[in-house]
User: What shape does this take?
Amino acid sequence: MLCDVRLFNSLTREIEEVVPVDGKTVKIYSCGPTVYRYIHIGNMRSFMLGDLIRRALRFEGHDVRWIMNITDVGHMTDELTDTGRDKMELAESDEGLSAAEIADKYTKAFLEDSDLVGIERADLYPLATEHIPEMIAIIDTLIEKGHAYEVEGTVYYDVTTFPGYGKLSGNTLDRLRAGHRQELAVDPSKRHPEDFALWKVAGPHRALKWPSPWGDGYPGWHIECSAMSMKHLGERFDVHTGGNDNKFPHHEDEIAQSEGAVGHRVTSIWVHGGFLQMGGQKMAKSAQNIKRVTDLAEQGVDPLAYRLLCFGTRYRSEMDFSWEALEAADSRVKQLRKRMADWAPAAGSIGAGAKGFDRRFRSAVAGDLDMPTAVKVANELVSAPDVPDGEKYALLATWDQVLGLDLERDARERWEPTDEITALVAERDTARAARDFAKGDEIRDRLQAMGLEVMDTPEGTRVRPR
Assistant: This one.
């Protein structure tokens, strides 16, 4: 029995069913990394959210397209006012590399670290610098529609023209104005203190700049995601993810830009993940409590144990990190893999006793990604005396499509072919040597039906568990 996947919508403050607007494919956009430094495990928890949503939807039979952007320009050191220095330019100064070299270096590191914690590759990783024309087109449209204005080469969004501003974060214009009254200085170029930059004029020494109708300049951080999400997913898509810190100003401004440009709602469900804390502090460079995924591996911990550790806290909640909890998760992952290896010879179909566990697991995952309950169900299955070992193996292997813990790793390494499989492999090699390829294909199909991957090598046919 398939379950309807439901997620908490930060915009409506309600749990809603994910229903593709085109009736076919669920389209997801995730705010990705700013690639000017290494990504820490707190960031990885946010990026894991998009991966988990895609896994949950595919688990229930949905077709999914997932896009995660790469920010390689425009993210300023002061996120609230979109001022200060571009983080990519700071990295250039620090490392003596070009912006392109910086972006390439840290994008590769991000993808490698993502692989280690079981984040499957997105369908596309668009770069901000490759979408400047799309950003300019949206800004031009916003000016035409009266949502934006230009002052000496910089273009600002006039937030008073968008009545719904603040509906995502709760930072309404009245509340923002109260905050601005406490400030000593406000940019005099703006019509209103709450307005934000869409395009910024380039200074005389800036290397990252592009020509535009308003002169040489560069985009603001927020316009990037409006351009990339709508180019690759269309003007209506289903899910947008990010960390809680993205709600304001980034996602609030993105809503104003996108909806102001196209005149209608763009994203159906906004999903935000909680912070990772260490010792009660948000993990951040300024707090000097950064841990990379590679740091975990250097300590002898399987990075996938961090993935299991994250499942112990609901994604919307703050999560406390400790080495003790991580080591316990590491032990548990290794125990599960050992049990799976022990059960592998008896692996079979899922019977009536196991189906009850399957319903509970699916219900938890589909119910706003209740991974603590899903893990609890998995642990109960492992110790259930009335479920045969072979069914336990089959069910956990299926659930691992969502869990992503590589639970069959030890079973694959320990696996040895049965006499029947060995005989079929030999028969196939004989058939292929005799150029009886029809017979060889028939045997290949039989081996694949037994759950095996069939590989043709110079030494002959090789098989292993899929």
